[in-house]
Structures are given as C-alpha cells and as structure tokens.
Amino acid sequence: MEHFIYRDGILHAEDVSLVEIAAKVGTPFYVYSTATLQRHYQVFDEALSGMEHFICYAMKANSNMAVLRIMAEMGAGMDVVSGGEYARAIAAGVPGEHIVFSGVGKTREEMAAALRGGIRQFNIESEPEMHVLNEVALSLGTVAPITVRVNPDVDAKTHAKIATGKSENKFGIPIAKARAVYAEAANLKGLEVVGIDVHIGSQLTDLTPYENAFNKVAELTELLREDGHNIRRLDLGGGLGIPYERSNEAPPLPIEYGEVIRRTVGHLSCEIEIEPGRLIAGNAGLLVATVVYRKEGEGRDFLIVDAAMNDLIRPAMYDAHHDIVAVVEPEVGVEPVPYDIVGPVCETGDTFAKERNIPPMEAGDLMAFRSAGAYGAVMASEYNSRPLIPEVLVKDDQFAVVRARPTYEEMINRDTIPYWMT
Predict the structure, then answer these.
(1) Are residues 360 and 390 in the same domain?
(2) Given this model, what pLDDT does residue 251 score?
(3) 177 occurs within a structural domain
(4) How many CB atoms are closer than 10 A to CB 150?
(5) Residues 192 and 107 in one domain
(6) What is the mean pLDDT of the chain?
(7) Last residue of a domain, one of 274, 302, 321
(8) What mean pLDDT comes out for the span 176-182?
C-alpha cells in the first residue's frame, strides 16, 4: 500500500497534508511514514517465515530515535557501525543482546562499551581487530561472541562507492583465508565463534550476486563445521535495492530474496540474520522543499529551491536519482516542463536534477523528493552554516517533529573562542 498519495489535489503522508506540515514546520523538512516503516519490516519478516531468523535494522540508513523506536517495537534488532550508533540503539530501548556491531574500524573504547552494555555479536573485519577484541574481552573478564566477515569476491553490480564484496574493497577477510582465521579465533580465550558474516554491497537490483555469495558461505559453513566450529548463525547482511525511479523496472522483492536464502543456505539449520536499512527506510520518507526562484538561463530554466546538497547529498555524491513531484497535484492536461533543480549552496554540484520534466512551478510552490528516507538526514551537514533541517514523523492523521531545526544561535554557540582571544 502507498502511504504518500494525493488527496483532493494535495500530496499527503498517510492522512496528513504536506502543505499543513510545511505551514507549521517550514521548509525544507524530511517526513517519514510510520505505516511504511512497519510494512517494510513486516515484508522482510514474512519473506523469512519458516526459517529461524532475526532482522537487525541497519540504522546507518536512518538513525532518528523515533524511527529506531518503531523498529524496536516491531521486534527488530540493530546493526550498528559506531559507538554513537550503539548508544542510540540502547537509548531507543533496544537490548544489547539484539545489537550486532559491524564496521572495519571498531576502537577499544567502542568494543568495551558494547561488552559492558551487552552485544549479540561483533562482526570481525580483520585479524588485527580480532586480537584487539580478544584483549578487551579478557580485560573485562568476559567473552565476546563473534562472526568473521568474509569477502567472497563477488561483484554486486552496484555503484562503486557502495560495493563491499569484491577483493579490492576494504571489507572483510578474503574467503580463501577464512579457515585459517577461524582456527586462530578458536584459540583466543576472549572470543566465541557463533557464525559467519557476509555483506556484498548496497542498492542491489539483481539477486544473482546474492546467490553467488550465499553459495560460497554455504560451502564455507560445511568446511568450518568439519574443522570443529559450531557455526549456528549466518549473518547475510543487507543491501536489497529500492525503486528510486518509478518508471524503471522494480528491484526484486523481499520474498524473492528470501527464496534465494532458502535455496542456498536453508538446509544448514542456521539462524539467519539480515540487516536491511535502505529498503525499510528509503521509500518511507520524503524531502519537502519550496521553490525560491524560477530562473531563466541560456537554453534552460532553473528551479532554485531551499533544500541543498548539505540536506540531501546523494545526487552530488552518487549521481543518484530521486523522483521529484509537485506537492499540489497539477491539473489534468498540464504538460511537464524540463528544469534544472538546484539548491542555494555555492557549488555547481548542488544540483538535484538536470532537465527533469516536472509540472510548471513558480516561486513559493512546494515539491517533494521521493525515496529520501534512507541516507538523507543521516548524511546531512551544516555546510554554508545552513541548519540541519527538521525531521517529521507521521502516524495516521498525526505528525510530530522528531528532530527540530537548530537556531543560528544554537549552531554558533557550539563553537568556543580560545581564552587568549577573549
């Protein structure tokens, strides 16, 4: 079911008009749909039905506390990649035993905090990290549950900056070395091997790379069990893509992804962990902006909006596409017009779309960037001293600001002047 639809000519988030939110909150802002977040969790849960499984939401996609609380109430664990994300997950009410700690650069301090607060497992990315975690665990008189992230050298056929499963990527241990690394881990008294981890990339729109990677994990599982390891958990990562361009063919559905898991590793009697982020949060959010100026250029027209690359960096960083729609539905028969849609930041890269066909717009009109719920607000900055924009959560006919826009004074007061300059 679609939860961002036109009603009486106005785009709504569930039962709330975006015009109403804009009037009360001001633009630009992010808005998230509770119903969409819940539905996306449920479709993953249903896709893995019949298998022992645990869904850990990859909170790097969207770590707003309200979003985390929704996920926790649905029964999700969390996949975290920093001490700050771990602290957020705990603050959102997620038990430590439901948190998986990923990432290539975990520090001793982060490891210790997770061991003290509780942890489901650490996904180990390198041998040096494994030895450091062993030392930290022993110093605290405890044992750290681990999986080893293996790099299967599989091309995920995604954007180069979000591919993680090829041999030249920084992630994981080469799968050819896995048996030796697991043997080493078994001799470290501060560690307990519980399974295998693999993650090959983000925004995958083809299931074949998953099948190739999971087949390699299945083969490794059998070999490690022959070596005496109790492999009882398979962390298969996340990365399933979403339809950023509605005119294109839709990516595979979670149920199809679940069938690949059944076919490749379902016979191993392992608990299956997955870590979706983008597919849960991406299409659950919009970025809403106001046209500041319509500018006539040489051979093209520009719409200059009050959102910028510091608010939504994906187009500048990844050349990413976001569908852009008018908040007020155009009348039937109105022909679209090509615009370059740009922000106010002093960078040519502050461009959301070039020659994008959308309904004619003028200063003061509202537009919405679809599929902005993941890797939007979490990647935002205060470049050009532009305040971080509000995040709004909608549930049915209610909405609340779940992160407020800071004032200029709040931004400035975070800086301090050295005593010798006062």
Answers:
(1) yes
(2) 84
(3) yes
(4) 25
(5) yes
(6) 94
(7) 274
(8) 95
Looking up residue 177, the CATH number of its domain turns out to be 3.20.20.10
Its sign, for the CA torsion 181, 182, 184, 188, is positive
Counting residues of the chain whose pLDDT is more than 90, the rounded percentage is 87
Q: What is the pLDDT of residues 135-172, one digit of tens each?
A: 999 999 999 999 999 998 876 554 454 444 444 555 68
What tokens appear for 290 in the block? 């106001």
Q: Which long-range contacts (CB under 8 A, 24 or more apart) does 111-120 make?
A: 111/136, 111/137, 111/144, 112/136, 112/139, 112/140, 113/83, 113/86, 113/87, 114/83, 114/86, 115/140, 115/142, 115/144, 116/140, 117/86, 117/90, 119/144, 119/145, 120/56, 120/77, 120/96, 120/145
Rounded Cα distance between 156 and 169, Å, is 12
Q: What is the mean pLDDT of residues 215-230?
A: 97
Residue 198: name the closest of 185, 211, 184 by CA.
211
Q: What is the pLDDT of residue 165?
A: 43
Residues designated as active site: 346
Q: How far is CA 288 from the centre of its chain?
A: 19
* Number of domains, the chain: 2
Give the largest CA-CA distance in the chain. Answer: 72
Alpha carbons 185 and 138: distance in angstroms, whole number: 14
Of the candidates 237, 256, 274, which is a domain's last residue? 274
329 located within any domain = yes
The boundaries of the domain holding residue 219 are 103-274
